[in-house]
Structure formats: C-alpha cells, structure tokens
Amino acid sequence: MQVLTKRYPKNCLLTVMDRYLAVVRNMEQVVMIPSLLRDMQLSTHGYQAQAGVSDLYSYFTMLKAIRMDVEHGLLPRQEWQAKVAGGKADGAETEAGEMEEAEEEQVSGQLDLEAQFHLHFANLHHILTRLTLKAEEVTRRYQEKMGQ
C-alpha cells in the first residue's frame, strides 16, 4: 500500500511535530532495554538539565508520554490537573487555581487573538524542537552504551 505524505515548509508546525514523532518512534525502536538509561545523565551541550528529570530514563519516559499526547490529544483539563497533582488537590488549591485562571483570562482578554496565537505557536515550535533534540540525544547515548 502506498502512503501519501504531504511535504510542509521547513518551519511549519506540522513539520516540527512530524519530525518529533519520527525521532521519538526511532528512539523507542532503538532503545530495547530502557532500564540501561537509568543513572545516565544527559550531556546538555550548553543547556541546563530540566528540573525534575534526573536521568536519561526519565527523559525517555517523558518523551514517550508527550508523543502520546501529540498523537492522541490531551487529557481533559480536570484529568490532567489530577494527574499532575497526584490526585491530592484539596479545596484551597482548587480555589487558588480558579483565581489564577480568572486572572489569566483577564490578561489574555487584553491581548488580541493573533498575538496570543503567535506567542503560543512560537513557544510550541521551540519546545518541540528542543524535545526532538533530547530524543536524538537519548538515542545516541543508548547506542554509545550498547557499542553500536
């Protein structure tokens, strides 16, 4: 069966997303034993390691989880907040979160939609590019460890 693939411009968000998905799929195929990535640090090449991500195994699992979100969509907001909070959100935290959301909506209402779009588009493009580089780094480091 022939699969038609459409070519997008180099800086198109779809191109960046497709590249990220392809690199993470490759990482998953190459990394046959993910536990070997434990206690291996990401060589940052000028970047600081992300807070809360301690080793390549953590990056591996994070990159896979993000790939699932990109391919299948996000969880509903309440489910995502419960997942992040570990399901331990109490009334005070919920109230504070609602107040923050109201403030954010007020600020975002002051910006025009086109400016908001460009801001989020640029940030998403930058984040996906950095995640792609991290997935390539995890793959490369695993291959070095395995002697490939």
From TrEMBL:
Keyword annotations from UniProtKB, A to Z: Cytoplasm, Nucleus
Cytoplasm listed as a keyword: yes
Family label: Belongs to the SPOT14 family.
Source superkingdom: Eukaryota
Positions with biased composition (Acidic residues): 92-105
Region span, Disordered: 86-105
UniProt keyword annotation of Secreted present: no
Record-linked InterPro entries: Lipogen_MT_Stabilize_sf, Spot_14
Annotated Gene Ontology cellular component terms: cytosol; nucleoplasm
A single GO BP: regulation of triglyceride biosynthetic process
Gene3D superfamilies found in the cross-reference section: 6.10.140.1610
Pfam family, one: Spot_14
GO molecular function, one term: molecular function inhibitor activity
Main location: cytoplasm
Subcellular location(s) per record: Cytoplasm; Nucleus
Name of the protein described by the UniProt record: Thyroid hormone responsive
